[in-house]
Amino acid sequence: MTHELVPSPVRLPVRAGPGQPEPSPALEDLYRGFERELLVPLWTEIGELMPLAPRSKAAPHLWRWRNLVALAERAGQLVPLGRGGERRALALANPSLGGRPFATPTLWAAIQYLMPGEDAPEHRHTQHAFRFVVEGEGVWTVVNGDPIRMSRGDFLPQAGWNWHAHHNAARQPMAWIDGLDIPFAYYTESQFFEFGRDAIDTVEKQTPARSRSERLWSHPGLRPVAHVERAVATPLLAYRWADTDRALAEQLALEAEGCTATLSPGHAAVRFTNPTNGCDALPTMRAEMHRLRGGAASRTRREVGSSVFQVFDGSGSASVGDHRWTVARGDLFVVPSWQPFSIRADGAADGPTLDLFRFSDAPIFEALHAQRAQDEAG
Amino acid sequence: MTHELVPSPVRLPVRAGPGQPEPSPALEDLYRGFERELLVPLWTEIGELMPLAPRSKAAPHLWRWRNLVALAERAGQLVPLGRGGERRALALANPSLGGRPFATPTLWAAIQYLMPGEDAPEHRHTQHAFRFVVEGEGVWTVVNGDPIRMSRGDFLPQAGWNWHAHHNAARQPMAWIDGLDIPFAYYTESQFFEFGRDAIDTVEKQTPARSRSERLWSHPGLRPVAHVERAVATPLLAYRWADTDRALAEQLALEAEGCTATLSPGHAAVRFTNPTNGCDALPTMRAEMHRLRGGAASRTRREVGSSVFQVFDGSGSASVGDHRWTVARGDLFVVPSWQPFSIRADGAADGPTLDLFRFSDAPIFEALHAQRAQDEAG
Amino acid sequence: MTHELVPSPVRLPVRAGPGQPEPSPALEDLYRGFERELLVPLWTEIGELMPLAPRSKAAPHLWRWRNLVALAERAGQLVPLGRGGERRALALANPSLGGRPFATPTLWAAIQYLMPGEDAPEHRHTQHAFRFVVEGEGVWTVVNGDPIRMSRGDFLPQAGWNWHAHHNAARQPMAWIDGLDIPFAYYTESQFFEFGRDAIDTVEKQTPARSRSERLWSHPGLRPVAHVERAVATPLLAYRWADTDRALAEQLALEAEGCTATLSPGHAAVRFTNPTNGCDALPTMRAEMHRLRGGAASRTRREVGSSVFQVFDGSGSASVGDHRWTVARGDLFVVPSWQPFSIRADGAADGPTLDLFRFSDAPIFEALHAQRAQDEAG
Amino acid sequence: MTHELVPSPVRLPVRAGPGQPEPSPALEDLYRGFERELLVPLWTEIGELMPLAPRSKAAPHLWRWRNLVALAERAGQLVPLGRGGERRALALANPSLGGRPFATPTLWAAIQYLMPGEDAPEHRHTQHAFRFVVEGEGVWTVVNGDPIRMSRGDFLPQAGWNWHAHHNAARQPMAWIDGLDIPFAYYTESQFFEFGRDAIDTVEKQTPARSRSERLWSHPGLRPVAHVERAVATPLLAYRWADTDRALAEQLALEAEGCTATLSPGHAAVRFTNPTNGCDALPTMRAEMHRLRGGAASRTRREVGSSVFQVFDGSGSASVGDHRWTVARGDLFVVPSWQPFSIRADGAADGPTLDLFRFSDAPIFEALHAQRAQDEAG
Questions:
Q1: A366 touches chain B (CB under 8 A)
Q2: pTM of the predicted protein model
Q3: What ipTM was reported for this prediction?
Q4: Has residue C54 been placed in a domain?
């Protein structure tokens, strides 16, 4: 293997500047040697690779739900669903990530769309996934044979390497969002995939209101003694809106009574967790629901890692880095790493709340002891 | 300090037998020397101290609820409640543990009784505690100022070193059981106690249906983001019967549908757990509710460590070691370490179930990696 | 089963006093009812069971090494070693624990003695054990077939349920101390025992300077990649004096250079740990070596749980509760729970150090989150 | 913000193929809509993003040590060292990663070079780092003020956010390799950096044979009682070759005696671990030393995640994916994710061994429960 025969991918133009050696023919010669040997000096790259704080390659960006739904509907008409394509999913492509379907450097967020009566074929993959439903109903996701109803406000985690298919039992199409750690698995090259059956069976097409997983696991503080092992990801496959809504309402009520229940005044939040260990529902993704009382604002905060928000209900505004948007039901926006962000609800304290679903890559950093956060003066 | 002046507590009669040295005057002399120096040979004690398997000093025993209640009522008339005595509690004294108020070598179980309008004064202790209510209502236990309703079927954990008082807001007396790790703390000499206020205040005498702890924590799979630390013991201070009942009913229904949900055919069970880590609600005590379908029997099982059962509803029979009892609502019985035990519900599969509350010291052994269990041929 | 036929073990004399109900015939009658039903009220027992802080049933006590050795030698002449008796071990019996062979409520400490050429037969038990050698050499303990040299200063842990035998390959007898959690296992009723072969084989009677366990595990910060599982107890079966001595000497030297290395001025200490998790070598017992510079004293400290100290070298004094002793090589003393204790080395700063081996039940309390300690004004 | 004004980074040519919708003008129109809204369908990307198993973007590649050293020497003459450039380090640029200084998608590996008397200025960063020395001596790395000798065979971890500088106290230049998780931190955008003092002080320029960290921590199985907290990364800052060499030699000797000590016949390996928890020395990088007996070969294995190997001594061959190289002292090669690899030592069983240093990103996958490995038929 002689490097001379293939052009080196390394390009090292000699540049003057602080911390850089004085340009000279000898330096030019040295840099050409580096290129031949596939070497890159730290001193030309350190500013990019080792900044004082994260400078995200991703941009803050907002996607309007009505636009996404319109394109998904059109795709429903034009793009058949089946083996190979697997899912009718349209992924948010961060405008600063080169056209790749990555909402942030680690997170995938997509709108998925199923026509009446349609089935998405069964497969499994090591990427962790969840569904969140901002509106509609009628689809059941079938995880390891357990049909799980999907309805407005539900969070439906589905940990890696579980078989899953989707089934629209309704006469209307349905759209929802999928979150996955696809970009993280892609960069770190740790993903496996397996095709399952092309069609699920009749029993799996049943449409129970409550899945088996909920019947076993959705009891506060209770675990089945038959299943006492600690599981890496949650065995509870549906977190229902009624529970989430009640938990958020209670936090605001407790705050009004003088208790420490909210993140900051008027800002309630719950995290979806794995009942077998109290940690995040999925090993690589955090999912939370936030509620701001009318007129209230969150603290302005920076965090290591990135997030995707979807407005669930109400209206307000979001500020991320230099961007500021008014937001309404279904709108999605991304918060890149270490960019300051805050959310504000429209209206008065006794008016409607602003409810937002959020997911992030925080568990990755916590597992590696690399998390950092900083609240800023509003 | 000369040992000759005080009689040694060590008594070492020379005895012949397998593994023992031949009796002789020299051996007598040696044994007297051991006594003087406060030494005891292994070879005289090994059979007692190092048996092939645990041989519990405790006996299986049954206490009838009606008898306990009758004595508690009488105590309600004769024994005032106040500072010093602290609680009108009558502890089960295992017949083989020397008259001490120990249900088993590690567990305290007592009936506590509060007259109408009575308050039990505030204190705190490092011993972990819980209340379980087999019948009645009207008392609120006030933990760190949070009034917690106590009603039939509720499990109310209260971890060590939290301030607590009790308040009977009803016109009837009320009885319930307390479980604590008092004997364990007593043997291992690790307990602290502190007196609190003699009387709780008016706000704490409120009688809300749901405590603040439930409003924050009793949402399946959800955690308040304002409280994401891992807690040693559960922050959820009431596990309500409606939830427990539903979880048990679902397990039997799932079993009927062919799913793995029960411990064995017809035997459902849930464990009360700490939502911040998925472990037992208290660091030293496990608490569970068991339900046997009419006519069903549990497996016969031995476990390291001891348990106390209380029948919550239904009727049936219990077998522990050589003992066998018919049991009905409120009856309490103990299972000593490594004694085989099983439970059987009366009636037919479509008849009433037998529901039992159980608590044990299992978390101690699991924390120290000393747990063992063995299912036996029925 | 009628309680009338057997006398109740419960005895409840009516006594007047603070927190106690007024004596009366009705109260007498009530107490007799408690006895019949095997009940004990909290109000008569609370002072004993729930003290403000631990009040140990054990007493501080000192055993002189020369007396122990003399009795062990005599036992070597009179008491044969073999199956059934298993070990020629003489256990310290705390003077306040009723003549039982318990150094403290949780810990067993014994001198064991092996005559030239003698073998102690193979067995295993779930109780955790270790050997510590204050003087002598010539014995190999054979753990799962691995012969492990025992020499002055060595700490030799041997976790529960491992086969072990001992073999004296020398022409002299040898004595050492054994530490076990026998009392803890006895009270909590969690112990299992199994007899092994009566004699170990020729290969196991080899006398290597280093055991296989050391050759695999005794390399600082290094683990064999073939054994990367986390082990409940240490796989390293010998901690050699040369390493311990060097570590202690370095701490004092680092302290002299101004670094934070010692527990308090002049007081160095190392803990014997499990290289697979950094925790204590054994799940239920902590073992440490302490060194006091000549003239230095430890802090006065109280801790939940009990300890046994053995002087390894040097001379000084120990203070435990109200007791104070001068101590020298081999002397053993116990520190009951929550009793203040301190140690002081004789001599000048440039003179000999006082070295002490210590073991305690601290891991039990840490595993259950019940540890507490308090440094006192000297 | 109107998307029309800025060209979208998304490019979605309509392509026919399995799993793809039939090309049509309507589909063209739909795809243009996706571009405008910054959406990318899953069905065009799934093959790339969700392969059946990891298909690494990185290539197997070998760098010859003599070439690296020659270029580093030349850089020593031409490139001054100082604030801004920070380090005279030349990073391996994987030929398939676009000319970036990334040995693999997650790992940075560089040769660093210090001229006689030179100092590298102090800084700290959250990226974890280590140094490994294949030859030479004379440099001390100063971590938080503790000067740490660097000599042939030493592994010198330096966890994130610790201050560090380097000081060449010798009359010769010295080269070594640095390993960091720079690419991982770069992709996940989680890095912080801080400049320290431009020059370290006189005390820090001392050249002790053993660092303070070793004097406290480099004692097998022993921990200072003054430092019993669990640390996220190792407090031991130098793992010396003498220890590593002995551990490897013992494994081969134990294997010859019939014990389970090696990974496979003739293949010994040790892992550098954190003595406070038994885990990898650094939270994101695994470091190991491997030794193959003359003539022996490792198993052929695939693993999730990537590795960098450096030959420390001996000669042999390495096979990675479709590549096969003969290797000798200092040569570096990379193993991309899920590529099969094996190593073989030249010579006879009684000849010299082949010793290799290896580091990888395995702890990332283990922390997230995403690890997988597979041994293949040789």
A1: no
A2: 0.96
A3: 0.96
A4: no
